[in-house]
Amino acid sequence: MAVVSLSPLAIISGFIALILFRRDLHTIVFFFGTLLNELFNSILKYTICEPRPLQRSVSQEFGMPSSHAQFSWFFATYVIYFVFIRLHHMNNNTTLENAWKAVIILSCLSVAVFVTISRVYLQYHTWKQVIFGSIVGILFGTFWFALTHLVFTPYFPMLASWRVCELLLVRDTTLIPNVLWFEYTNARQESRARGRKLVSMKSQ
């Protein structure tokens, strides 16, 4: 349970790695949403001022709502919307793709449920605190996906054309149905082209 409870840290590490190596605008906006979600959680905690069930430090710690539960359900909710809405029009909508979508959704839901339960099991929060955190996470995840999908996404091509984004290699892959397949085919074509060029240079 203690290991599962640390899942949000693993997710944040994954976000940072994706942003550093892929530099996709949608990933950056998604990560920014998680930061705003955490900020909103802190505001709620210091507004409600409900203590944790067990006080583990000298300083006062508040537990309403649970930040772990809110984070996990924000992430799960956003990913589920992304799979159902953004990935709905993928060109290769095969049985394998549908199976992968089901695995992603079930994994996110499982992690969110286990993180929520673990916070009560480890006596960091009460059931009321984790349930409230879960509800806030679901609502904020819904809000942030709608904002990203309907408001931010149409501006991604313009943002990607900015000089600073070009210097940082920030890109927009929104209109590419399957980024993994796109990168694979382009890398293969480039590799073959360079291979033929190398053979041609050696034969001269």
UniProtKB/TrEMBL annotation:
<feature type="transmembrane region" description="Helical">
    <location>
        <begin position="6"/>
        <end position="21"/>
    </location>
</feature>
<comment type="similarity">
    <text>Belongs to the dolichyldiphosphatase family.</text>
</comment>
<dbReference type="InterPro" id="IPR036938">
    <property type="entry name" value="PAP2/HPO_sf"/>
</dbReference>
<dbReference type="GO" id="GO:0006487">
    <property type="term" value="P:protein N-linked glycosylation"/>
</dbReference>
<keyword id="KW-0256">Endoplasmic reticulum</keyword>
<dbReference type="GO" id="GO:0047874">
    <property type="term" value="F:dolichyldiphosphatase activity"/>
</dbReference>
<dbReference type="InterPro" id="IPR000326">
    <property type="entry name" value="PAP2/HPO"/>
</dbReference>
<dbReference type="GO" id="GO:0005789">
    <property type="term" value="C:endoplasmic reticulum membrane"/>
</dbReference>
<keyword id="KW-0378">Hydrolase</keyword>
<feature type="transmembrane region" description="Helical">
    <location>
        <begin position="68"/>
        <end position="87"/>
    </location>
</feature>
<dbReference type="Pfam" id="PF01569">
    <property type="entry name" value="PAP2"/>
</dbReference>
<feature type="domain" description="Phosphatidic acid phosphatase type 2/haloperoxidase">
    <location>
        <begin position="27"/>
        <end position="145"/>
    </location>
</feature>
<comment type="pathway">
    <text>Protein modification; protein glycosylation.</text>
</comment>
<keyword id="KW-0812">Transmembrane</keyword>
<feature type="transmembrane region" description="Helical">
    <location>
        <begin position="130"/>
        <end position="152"/>
    </location>
</feature>
<keyword id="KW-0472">Membrane</keyword>
<feature type="transmembrane region" description="Helical">
    <location>
        <begin position="99"/>
        <end position="118"/>
    </location>
</feature>
<keyword id="KW-1133">Transmembrane helix</keyword>
<dbReference type="InterPro" id="IPR039667">
    <property type="entry name" value="Dolichyldiphosphatase_PAP2"/>
</dbReference>
<comment type="function">
    <text>Required for efficient N-glycosylation. Necessary for maintaining optimal levels of dolichol-linked oligosaccharides. Hydrolyzes dolichyl pyrophosphate at a very high rate and dolichyl monophosphate at a much lower rate. Does not act on phosphatidate.</text>
</comment>
<protein>
    <recommendedName>
        <fullName>Dolichyldiphosphatase</fullName>
        <ecNumber>3.6.1.43</ecNumber>
    </recommendedName>
</protein>
